[in-house]
Amino acid sequence: MKYIDEFRDGEVARTIADKIANEVESNRRYSFMEFCGGHTHAISRYGLTDLLPDSVRMVHGPGCPVCVLPIGRVDLAIRLALDQGVILCTYGDTLRVPASNQLSLMKAKAHDGDIRMVYSTADALQIARDNPGREVVFFGIGFETTTPPTAVAIQQAQAEQLANFSVLCCHVLTPAAISNILESPEVRQYGTVPLDGFIGPAHVSTVIGSRPYEFFAEEYRKPVVIAGFEPLDVMQAILMLVRQVNEGRAEVENEFSRAVSRDGNRKAQDRVAEVFELRREFEWRGLSVVPYSALRIRAKYASFDAERRFKLEYVSVPDNKACECGAILRGVKRPQDCKIFGTVCTPENPIGSCMVSSEGACAAHYTYGRFRDTQEAS
Amino acid sequence: MSGTVKRGYVRPLDMKHGRVDLTHGSGGRAMVQLIAELFARHLGNEYLGQGNDGAVLPAPTFDGVPGQLVMSTDCHVVTPLFFAGGDIGCLSVHGTINDVAVMGARPLYLAAGFILEEGFPLADLERIVISMANAAREAGVPVVTGDTKVVEQGKGDGVYITTTGVGVLPPGRAIGGAGAQPGDAILVSGSLGDHGVAIMSQRENLSFDAPIKSDTAALNGMIADMLATAADIHVMRDPTRGGLATTLNEIAGQSGVGMLLREKDIPIKPVVNAACEFLGLDPLYVANEGKLICICPAAAAPELLAAMRAHPLGRDAVQIGEVITDEHHFVQLLTAFGGKRIVDWLTGDQLPRIC
Questions:
Q1: With a threshold of 0.80, does the pTM exceed it?
Q2: Global ipTM
Q3: Which A residues in the span 182-211 are in contact with B, Cβ-Cβ below 8 Å?
Q4: Topology classification of domain B177-342
Q5: Which of A233, A263, B45, B197 suits a disulfide with A228, CB 3.0-4.6 Å?
Q6: Contacts of B330 in chain A (CB under 8 A)
Q7: Is B145 helix (H, G, I), strand (E, B) or coil?
Q8: Cross-chain residue pair B335–A146, CB shorter than 8 Å
């Protein structure tokens, strides 16, 4: 596959791995957070840990769209489908996220909820056009990558006067989550989560650009390297981070220059700003309530806002007590540190959201890496 | 006064414009007519022609020696019913023949059950039945008995087909999922994921064109050639639903072993890889309908690979890994990138990722 295989070349990977091994300083440990689930997935799927020296540790971050979705938000979507009889359109990943009353969207579908998996907001609009007598709600989740398509769908619905279409907006913001982690007591006070730098998001950065990360590099003295989701991108980013740490630099560097510019996609940003505004606060799974960390639909487009349209009241629901997703999303714990990992909580019966999406740290470790735990134990 | 009673004239079925209706499942004349003009006409053979509630078949022997019976059944539901490279008709024949053949048995007979939805076009039904008849003829395995039911509109998906196959196994041959041993070679007969991608590319909500055809095929011919070499075979399976990954996990569990695969040796067509990349799916979990996994002692691998490659369905046969000792029964993959990972069981359906 052209433009893909080049970034999965094992030979090149070994060359970069050798450089990393040569350049790490023997008296130092390096701890880098890959913010995005896409990177977590690549690291696990390609077995990158095997190519890194022991002194380089990758900490999984919260950048997995379905992982940070709190139970209360999934509950809202389920209630819309079951109680209001709407056609609920959702991205496939979200179907298995556990919600209250042992339900998930997948299970609600089996309880006669009309829940349909879509590949894009355009599919959801088409469903609305095809079912003029039914309310059609799109469950809009995700970071800055999925926000512009939702904005476009709302504007399109307005232009077509699609009166039966609305969006349950749960879009969240990457920089707010990074701030939250950097401000967390584990990172700032106790040092339980040593963080020497970040691998910055790939797809998110194509939209927002590299500029928003400059604050973190300056204010918190943490190097950031924006990287693509291919395994060679990740290896190269790790090498660049090691060099920054060795040289005492804290800068924003862009490994993903084939897709990311400093200013990002201005057109997409304008669309988002036109349709959405900041929420004063939003609950995240794992990070709890984070101020100004999510978007809601502007009053101008109120009729397309499912929360207003169906007068939805958000009710916060605590996670299962045994579930460590919160600590795992903040990098405080590793999946294998959770008592229920791989026993009660598996991809077949996920208790926490990190076990749901293949981008989730627990699912990635369970699906691709858990053979290492048996080596650790023996 | 013979000759004054008029013989009833039965207007032939309108295969061009007609549709299945509830009378076709009621057990009356309409049903008899559907069987005669459609099913018997295309699928007919001496056993089906007996026209009784059951087919009387000769006692099975394997080259003159009485053998053991092998029986398998498979329900077929597929959307769309017609896809590049096949349709539900030939699929239902191939699937069951393959399930019998991978046991090391020679498939002999098929039974077919149809659940038809009211309103289904007879023209489509005829296409499906002709496709079944061709597939059965090519594989040399006749459909000897069958049944038809009709459900109301909205309660079916056009057509569901269940086929049951019977085969004969020679005395002393034991091929099954529990037979893999550490040191064995893992062979596959060709490229993986073709069927699943061909189907997915034609689903209505996924409009993309992939120049790829389903690999649906009956494997009994190739398997007979492999068995004829007398090389030792421990396990054979056709990796259908859940793909290579799921099938190997099943075998690893049944045999109490682990497996180590080499990603660079696993044959996947670039177009399948590209489609999976695009959809966020893993080709190792995508269904196949005409591929074989064979696990055999390492010493037998060259001879079996040669037999597979000599058959049109096994031209691209290749060894993809080995069976290893592992108390956790993990299927591991040495990635082309140089790292190692698990190839785990599939969890539910593969769902596309968001990011």
A1: yes
A2: 0.79
A3: 203
A4: Phosphoribosyl-aminoimidazole Synthetase; Chain A, domain 2 (3.90.650)
A5: A233
A6: 371
A7: strand
A8: no
